[in-house]
């Protein structure tokens, strides 16, 4: 089969590799029908995730059809159409028993495209398949479902839920890329008074409006002044960091009100300054986290019921053999207007 193989920082190749096989009784193998590219994949290529070794197949978001199951898989059969979660869960370690699957001690957590081969390939092995896949109803398209593999649960859990968004809040989302847009979409479920989007690119701010932001501001357009004017000088109740750079983290800390909450989603490859000399007295809560995907079933139910409109998230479509081109488009959003790119079998 062919797969996208990481060759070290800045290097990737669509190349022939051996087909995946069942390595453990709890494994399944899927034929990849739809896959997408994550900002985390760009961080890997940028050298920000040194745990990823050269030779690794990238990717952790896919919809596929089961082609083989191990003897220990109880709830899947060949032919099932499934969502492959970005998080794998052993189900029996202390963290899994608490629903904190991202911190799995039994060989799971974020492993696909990280510590084991991922899903940007024609076929993929899925460890802990019973707990790491979700059977999909016919009414849900591959394109809609693949956005639930990572982006929607990440934004919802690590941004909206960790930030404790409440009715009447002023919520600021710094970064209007796919993760930020998903945070806006899911924050709206809690009826905030204002949702403010901050980004460097006007095209992404225009997209943020479509996803529910009622105020948008360019990063160099005095976001602090805009937020303070909206909040009678207080600052935002919740600020969601959706980029992963020192500058955006520090901006979030500057935008939050005393007693407010900063929820960091972004993947950081460099140290960011925590200004405790300013924050220590302001009762600010800062959260970080890796998605657990415990909300994926709920989000899937909302998708089926028409309560989540993910269709507008996908801006570019490719066949799987054009994945190198898709990466180029996704990596230049200011020029291409790319939000999410979806690749399907040719």
Automatic annotation (TrEMBL):
Domain Enoyl reductase (ER), chain residue ranges per copy: 7-343
Signal peptide: none
Cofactor dependency: Zn(2+)
PROSITE patterns according to UniProt: ADH_ZINC
Record SUPFAM superfamilies: GroES-like, NAD(P)-binding Rossmann-fold domains
GO molecular function: oxidoreductase activity; zinc ion binding
Family note: Belongs to the zinc-containing alcohol dehydrogenase family.
Protein name as catalogued: Zinc-dependent alcohol dehydrogenase family protein
Lineage, top ranks: Bacteria, Bacillati, Actinomycetota, Actinomycetes, Micromonosporales
């Amino acid at each position: 089969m062919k797969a996208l193989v990481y060759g070290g920082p800045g290097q990737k190749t669509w190349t022939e590799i051996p087909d995946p096989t069942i390595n453990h009784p709890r494994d399944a193998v899927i034929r990849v029908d739809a896959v997408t590219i994550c900002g985390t994949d760009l961080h890997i290529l940028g050298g920000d995730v040194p745990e990823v070794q050269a030779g690794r197949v990238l990717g952790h978001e896919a919809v596929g059809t089961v082609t083989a199951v191990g003897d220990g898989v109880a709830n899947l059969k060949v032919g099932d159409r499934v969502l492959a979660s970005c998080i794998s869960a052993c189900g029996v370690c202390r963290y899994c028993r608490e629903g904190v699957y991202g911190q799995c001690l039994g060989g799971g957590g974020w492993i696909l495209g990280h510590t084991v081969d991922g899903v940007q390939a024609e076929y993929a092995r899925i460890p802990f398949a019973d707990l790491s896949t979700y059977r999909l109803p016919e009414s849900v398209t591959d394109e809609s479902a693949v956005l639930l593999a990572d982006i929607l649960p990440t934004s919802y859990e690590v941004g909206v839920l960790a930030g404790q968004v409440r009715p009447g809040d002023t919520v600021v989302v710094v970064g209007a890329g796919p993760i930020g847009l998903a945070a806006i979409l899911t924050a709206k479920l809690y009826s905030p008074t204002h949702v403010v989007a901050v980004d460097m690119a006007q095209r992404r701010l225009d997209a943020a409006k479509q996803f529910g932001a009622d105020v948008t501001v360019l990063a160099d357009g005095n976001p602090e002044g805009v937020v303070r004017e909206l909040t009678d000088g207080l600052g935002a109740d919740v600020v969601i960091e959706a980029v992963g750079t020192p500058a955006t983290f520090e901006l979030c800390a500057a935008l939050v009100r005393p007693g407010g909450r900063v929820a960091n989603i972004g993947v950081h490859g460099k140290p960011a300054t925590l200004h405790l000399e300013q924050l220590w007295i302001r009762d600010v809560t800062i959260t970080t986290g890796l998605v657990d995907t415990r909300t994926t079933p709920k989000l899937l139910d909302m998708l089926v019921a028409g309560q989540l409109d993910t269709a507008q998230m996908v801006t570019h479509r490719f066949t799987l053999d054009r994945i190198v081109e898709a990466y180029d488009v996704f990596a230049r959003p200011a020029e291409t207007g790319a939000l999410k790119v979806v690749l399907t079998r040719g």
